[in-house]
Amino acid sequence: MLNKMMKPVVEHFMSHVPHVRALGIEFSGLGRDWAELTLPWSPHIVGYPGENGEKGVIASGAIFTLMDSVGGFSVHAARRSAAGHATLDLRLDYLRPARPGETVFGYSKVQRMTKSVAFVRGYAHDGEREDPLALMTGCFMFTKGAKS
Amino acid sequence: MSFDALAAQMADADEGPLSGIPYADTLGAEYRIEGDQVTLIVPYRKSLVGSPQPPRLHGGAVAGLMELAAIAQVIHQFRQEDMLPGVLPINVTVDYLRAGQTETVYAAARIVRMGRRVANVQVEAWQDERERPIAAAHMNVMLRR
Asked: Where is the Acyl-CoA thioesterase-like N-terminal HotDog domain (chain B) (predicted)?
């Protein structure tokens, strides 16, 4: 299976991305034009602390990082290459707050690739795909070793 | 969702950490107030890097910082009022303009329209030169009064 083969490769790659590691983002799955990562709940990514010692809600910025990362991985998957790309733009609609304590899943699929741009769509959920907490639209540009 | 701790801190001091937001601590974000304007500052740290070779800031960290800048500016706008509304992001669109270098990053927001229920906010992030932004964001923020 692709996922079994790719898991150690992707995990190795992710372990070298400090900000992905700092937030606790993990590999979940990979296909021919899609990727999935997870963001387990942890206290240091909370944006809205809970009251009376209850668990807080994950910051939307941390979910943005999850979706930017998974968008990039889906582009790697679709290109079947670790070649460079840069996020051109990324939009998130925050449909609802993530449930405190739950792992957030980020899924992204490449809808279309041109010579230099990949168009992606994705969503984040916290257990049920049918009940997403955020929707993503993004555009990634292939860099070919360009400087910035 | 209330940011009362941050509002109290910002009313008290013109600069400091973003109190009561663990995610802001994780980024290492601080604020500075000059008159009507709030600027957020994140000194470079290795944990912000999103691509190792060459090292560049993670776009998500820059976006997270810009969201915080939008929220801090909205809170600052309510400093004269008795009640701070609940503040919730509705959506955000980020345009990435330049790669984030391994240097301090700044972000500042401008409220385009403060409605009763929604604030429309523009945010820019920059590094060595204010005139050369590395990212620009547009955000709608829900206000719960």
From this structure: 56-138
Confidence at residue A2, expressed as pLDDT on a 0 to 100 scale: 67
All residues of chain A having their beta carbon less than 8 Å from the beta carbon of residue B24 are 47, 59
- pLDDT recorded at residue B136: 98
Give the residue from chain B lying closest to A59, CA to CA: B23
Residue A113 domain boundaries = 2-142
CATH number of the domain residue A20 falls in? 3.10.129.10
Other CB atoms within 10 A of residue A43 CB: 12
Name the fold adopted by B4-144: Thiol Ester Dehydrase; Chain A (3.10.129)
Mean pLDDT of chain A, nearest integer: 93
Q: Is the pLDDT of residue A142 over 60?
A: yes
C-alpha distance from A5 to closest chain B C-alpha (Å): 23
A98 touches B at CB < 8 Å: no
pLDDT of residue A148: 45
pLDDT at A145: 53
Average pLDDT over residues A22-30: 96
Domain count, chain A: 1
Between CA A44 and CA A62 the distance in angstroms is: 10
Nearest CA distance, B97 vs chain A (angstrom): 8
Neighbours of B112 (CB within 10 A): 11
* Residue A16 three-state SS: coil
